[in-house]
């Protein structure tokens, strides 16, 4: 299984970005997919999760109401739509495959990451 992220960049505070993750090598619809991020000097943390069928998506309190996590199983693609970006959203963002069929903080097979920088 491989995942690849794209879509990062530099944006002003209050702006928007959409990250894209494509997965190959497994049945995408059977996977719990999500986004994690890591800022310099901080631990990696879960941003948002879209589980396999039957379970509810989830997102971190810090991004609720600003980020959404659309998923297109037909295209083996996961997105992270980020609106109203803040300086504290600056981080390397990773697409990841969850270890469980429901959302958790346990991830496998993340990609190389894509950098998001929000200027204040």
Quote the average pLDDT.
94
Poorly predicted runs are none
- In helices, the fraction of residues equals under 10%
Q: What is the overall shape? A: globular
Number of strands: 12
Radius of gyration: 13 Å
Strand content: over 45%
Largest sheet: 7 strands, mixed
Question: Which structural category fits the helices and strands?
Answer: mainly beta
Helix and strand element order = EEEEEEEEEEEE
Describe the structure.
The structure is a single chain. The chain is mainly β and 120 residues long. It contains no helices and 12 strands. The protein has strands at 2-6, 9-12, 17-24, 33-38, 45-50, 58-59, 67-68, 71-72, 77-82, 91-98, 107-108, 114-119. The strands form 2 sheets. Strands 2, 4, 5, 6, 10, 11 and 12 form a 7-stranded mixed beta sheet that branches. Strands 1, 3, 7, 8 and 9 form a 5-stranded antiparallel beta sheet that branches. A hairpin with a 4-residue loop joins strand 8 and strand 9 (77-82). The mean pLDDT is 94.
Write the layout of secondary structure elements.
Layout lengths: L1 E5 L2 E4 L4 E8 L8 E6 L6 E6 L7 E2 L7 E2 L2 E2 L4 E6 L8 E8 L8 E2 L5 E6 L1
Parallel strand pairs: 2-12
Antiparallel strand pairs: 1-3, 3-9, 4-5, 4-10, 5-6, 7-9, 8-9, 10-11, 10-12
Considering the chains and any ligands shown, give keywords for the structure:
120 residues; mainly beta; five-stranded antiparallel beta sheet; 48% strand
Q: What's this entry about, in short?
A:
Helices cover 0% and strands 48% of the residues.
């Amino acid at each position: 299984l491989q995942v690849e992220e794209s879509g990062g960049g530099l944006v002003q505070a209050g702006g928007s970005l959409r990250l894209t993750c494509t997965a190959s090598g497994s049945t995408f619809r059977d996977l719990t997919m999500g986004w994690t991020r890591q800022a310099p000097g901080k631990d990696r943390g879960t941003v948002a999760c879209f589980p396999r069928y039957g379970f509810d998506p989830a997102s971190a309190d810090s991004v609720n109401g600003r980020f959404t996590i659309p998923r297109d199983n037909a295209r083996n693609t996961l997105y992270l739509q980020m609106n109203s970006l803040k300086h504290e959203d600056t981080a390397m963002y990773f697409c990841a495959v969850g270890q469980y069929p429901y959302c958790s903080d346990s991830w496998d097979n993340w990609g190389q990451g894509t950098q998001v920088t929000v200027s204040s």
